[in-house]
Write a structure and sequence with these properties.
The protein is an alpha+beta fold. The protein has a single domain (20-195), classed as Alpha-Beta Complex (endopeptidase fold (from Nostoc punctiforme)). It is built from seven helices and eight strands. The protein has helices spanning 2-16, 36-43, 74-80, 97-108, 128-140, 158-168, 181-185; strands at 26-29, 49-56, 59-64, 70-73, 87-91, 148-149, 177-178, 190-195. The chain has a six-stranded antiparallel sheet with strand order 4-3-2-1-5-8.
Length: 196
C-alpha cells in the first residue's frame, strides 16, 4: 500500500509540474528552414529559431518572425521544430501585468512585417531573435541577451559562407548589430520552465 501511495504521489507531482503557458515566455527550437544550419554553425548554437508566447482567447500562440511576422498556435509551432523538441524559458523575476501588456504591444507592432533575410538592426524588416529582444527592451528596458556584431560569429564555416554569399554578395556588413537566438537563450535573466 505504501508503494502504491508513493507512485500516486509521484504521478500527481508530475501532473502539478506540467507547463502552463504564460505571456512573455520565450520558446526556442531547431528550425528545419534552409538557413537553420548556417545559423547554428555561425552562432555555435543548437537552437536557430525562437518566438514569444502570448495567450489569445485563453489559448497559447507564438508571436514569431517568419514571412511575415505572425501568430502561430503553440502546438503547431512546437511540432514544426526538428524532432518536435523545444525549450521554453521565462524571466526569473516576474513582470507586472502592466509590463506584460506593454510587451505584447511592442511585439505586436511587428505583425505583418517581412522577415529580415540580411539581419539588419532596423525595424523595416525583422528576424526572430530581434523581435524578442526589441519587444522586451522597449517594453521593460531589459536586455535578454547581449548584442554582437556580425563579425563576432563563426563566418568561416562553408555553410555560413554560402549563405552569406547568397544574402550579401561581396558586401558583408561585418559591423551590423545582431542578436542571436543563443544570446537570448543564454541570458542570465531567464530560467527554463519546459524542455522536450
Amino acid at each position: 500500500m505504501k508503494i502504491l501511495t508513493g507512485v500516486c504521489a509521484l504521478l500527481l507531482a508530475g501532473a502539478a509540474s506540467a507547463y502552463t503557458p504564460r505571456d512573455g515566455d520565450i520558446i526556442f527550437h531547431t528550425s528545419r528552414s534552409a538557413q537553420s544550419i548556417a545559423v547554428q554553425k555561425a552562432t555555435g548554437s543548437r537552437y536557430s529559431h525562437m518566438g514569444l508566447i502570448f495567450l489569445r482567447g485563453g489559448k497559447p500562440f507564438v508571436l514569431e518572425a517568419v514571412q511575415p511576422v505572425k501568430y502561430t498556435p503553440l502546438a503547431q509551432w512546437q511540432a514544426r521544430g526538428e524532432g518536435g523538441r523545444y525549450v521554453i524559458k521565462r524571466l526569473a523575476a516576474p513582470l507586472s501585468a502592466a509590463d506584460l501588456q506593454q510587451l505584447r504591444r511592442e511585439g505586436e507592432k511587428f505583425l505583418g512585417r517581412s522577415y529580415d533575410l540580411t539581419f539588419e538592426w532596423s525595424d523595416g524588416r525583422i528576424y526572430c531573435s530581434e523581435l524578442v529582444w526589441k519587444a522586451y527592451f522597449r517594453a521593460t528596458g531589459l536586455q535578454v541577451g547581449a548584442t554582437q556584431q556580425l563579425r563576432d560569429f563563426h563566418l568561416d564555416d562553408p555553410a555560413v559562407k554560402r549563405k552569406m554569399q547568397e544574402r550579401y554578395g561581396q558586401r558583408v556588413p561585418l559591423d551590423e548589430t545582431v542578436i542571436a537566438p543563443v544570446a537570448v537563450f543564454e541570458s542570465p535573466l531567464l530560467t527554463v520552465v519546459e524542455q522536450r
